[in-house]
Amino acid sequence: MDQLALKAIERIAGQARAPYHCIAVDRLTPIIGAEVSGVDLSQPLSDEQLAEVRRAFLENHVLVFRDQHLTVEQHKAFGRLFGELRALPVEDIDGDDPELVVIRANAQSRFVAGETWHTDGTADLEPSMGSMLYVKETPAIGTGGDTLFANMHLAVEMLSPTMQQFLGELTAIHDGEIPWKGFQPPANLPKTEHPVVVRHPETGRKTLFVNSGFTSHIVQLSGGESQMLLNMLFDLIAREPILSCRVRWAPNTLVFWDNRCTQHHAVWDYFPHSRYGERVTILGKQPKS
Length: 289
Hints:
alpha+beta; Double-stranded beta-helix; 15 strands; 22% helix; taurine dioxygenase activity; TauD/TfdA-like
């Protein structure tokens, strides 16, 4: 590993963190992810608990809450502590709740969502702030269906200053039709131009904001140049394990991740077994460089 990458890792892994008093936070890796215990999400959080969950979220980017027993309304109430929930168009919902996305796979499934590295909804003008997936059913074999999460702050910080400066001058198109390749996409899917490198609106840190799930091309480059550069960035995310943590699901697990600075990848290694979860998405703001 080169010195630029080591220094970037040291800045994150070597950073002192204040202790928690109302919740317990156990980091999954020094770079990304933490399991949070000592809090019942079915009950109202105290101001102190909420403040510490917020801090843990900004420090770790992915939070795992296990053994939670939530109704749909309790799930949504926890999401609303962080912002307004995104409502899907009526024609896109599975059920009768536009704020709830059902995530399911079984023996009849021929594909599942999220099998590539991506960030949720980046084709929107105002992509989501975060997502909360509450998994109720996991594969009968007792394992499988893990989700990988990658830290996009570190993805930028591992690059040379020259490359960071170059990327900071570029914008890219995010196209909502890309995940539908090979299928008939719904009408009126969004297509939006965003900076390649953006600033996290709460921490001010740079984050890489292109992903293989939605990014089609870089505006300022030729087609060939754009593809080469995007391939380099996508390859960094796919091949560099330092960037990532792996979350193993169990029934009644809720995971809350920051779409402003992470990507994730669902692992479909449990076919033909079943998995079922429900997701709410928290509205965000237009990314700024």
